[in-house]
Amino acid sequence: MQNITSGATGGIDLDCGMSGRYEFIFTLIPIVYGCNFVIGIVGNSMVVAVIYCYMKLKTVANIFVLNLAISDLTFLITLPMWATFAATGYYWPFGGFLCKASAGLVIFNLYTSIFFLTALSIDRYLAIVHPVQSRRFRTVVYARITCVVIWLFAFVLSVPTALTRDVHNINKPNTTVCGILHSNNINTKMLKELLVAISLMKSLLGFLVPFIIIITCYCLIGRALVGARHIQKSTRCRDDEVLRMLAAAVLAFFLCWVPHQVFHFMEVLTQMWTVRNCAIEEIIDTAMPFTICIAYFNSCVNPIVYGFVGHNFRKNLLRLLRCSPSGHPGPHPSISSKMSALSFHASEALSLTSKNKASSDIK
After folding, report:
1. Beta strands in the chain (DSSP E)
2. Which of 110, 157, 209, 300 is the most buried (most CB within 10 A)?
């Protein structure tokens, strides 16, 4: 649904028609959205409750994971509207304001989620590779400032999407949609350039640049752990488990977002073409709902990857379900996922390695 012309009845005539309109999409997508909504709301709400009630905001990892869960929750509240939109054959009954707000929240969540994942990766890198030097930077104050910057930056990046999304009446078929459409008026060129800029920004800042940073951090972490275990043999199994957890986090991020980003980039290319190709747009519009479902599933995966695999998290979750009062935190009140806990042990190994080298130099 890209190029439009003004119809005689005051509605909009699509150059290529409303492609991607298949009954199985209108049936399957709402079901997937509903599952994502239930799993994501329950999982992220438990993360927020456990961290706030039992684990407290006393570590950098806890603060980032809490904000990541809140980010996912702000997006998940829009899923019932998008499920209704798909179930009714792309009919939007909620008005222009909610159209703009929902579209803005989707992009807002894209940026905040990826930025918080990137911040977590940088924090893991500093904690493991530079455990001593990074102590003055890895503080609660700096973490909270980073979160505020991420929220504000993501909001600024999501505003253009909200402004360019609106409710439109389509002549054939006769329906009302919430979407971005290119109008054939005097501002067509300017609008087209703006939409291409927004799309490229989504691909670069919303995926490519953060993914490069995440991969770089994990490669440096892996190199440091491999170098440390040659000297500290007792940490071999624990280091291997750290690498597996880090690989799982990267893999989940990659698998959830790459399909959508690929078809989104194809959509950007079709926007830049001067000649319309309805066949290609049909493929993109048919595949896009499924890639969006996979991308949205990342909001359900985050609590599993960063919280539920941790022993302390599971213990505190059981306390929450039993309505046990929050007591004093344990000796290491952190998110305590396997990644965080084993990263602490890996930091010890690297510190011991440094000490061993220092002792050798003194001798």
Report:
1. 4-6, 12-14, 166-170, 175-179
2. 110
In Å, what is the CA distance from 136 to each residue of 55, 114, 127, 130, 131? 22, 25, 11, 11, 10
Whether 125 and 220 have beta carbons less than 8 Å apart is answered as: yes
- How far apart are the C-alpha atoms of 13 and 33, rounded to whole Å? 29
Do 165 and 179 meet the contact criterion of CB atoms below 8 Å apart? yes
Q: What is the largest CA-CA distance in the chain?
A: 90
pLDDT digits (tens, 9 = 90+) for 124-164: 888 888 888 888 888 889 999 999 999 999 999 999 999 88
Q: Where are the alpha helices (DSSP H) in 130-235?
A: 140-164, 188-203, 209-229
Query: Which residues contact residue 64 at a Cβ distance below 8 angstroms, ignoring those fewer than 6 apart?
Result: 116, 119, 120, 123, 143, 146, 147
Tell me the pLDDT tens digit for each residue of 175-215.
888 887 655 555 677 777 888 888 889 889 988 999 899 88
* Cα angle value 59/60/62 (rounded, 5°): 70
Q: Which domains does the chain have, with CATH numbers?
A: 4-350 (1.20.1070.10)
Does position 1 have pLDDT exceeding 60, yes or no?
no
Please state, in angstroms and rounded to a whole number, the distance separating the CA atoms of residues 165 and 171.
19
pLDDT(274) > 70: no
pLDDT in tens, 45-56: 988 888 888 777
CA 257, CA 97: separation in Å to the nearest integer?
Answer: 27
pTM (two decimals): 0.78
Integer CA distances (angstroms), 52 to 46, 67, 319, in order: 10, 11, 13
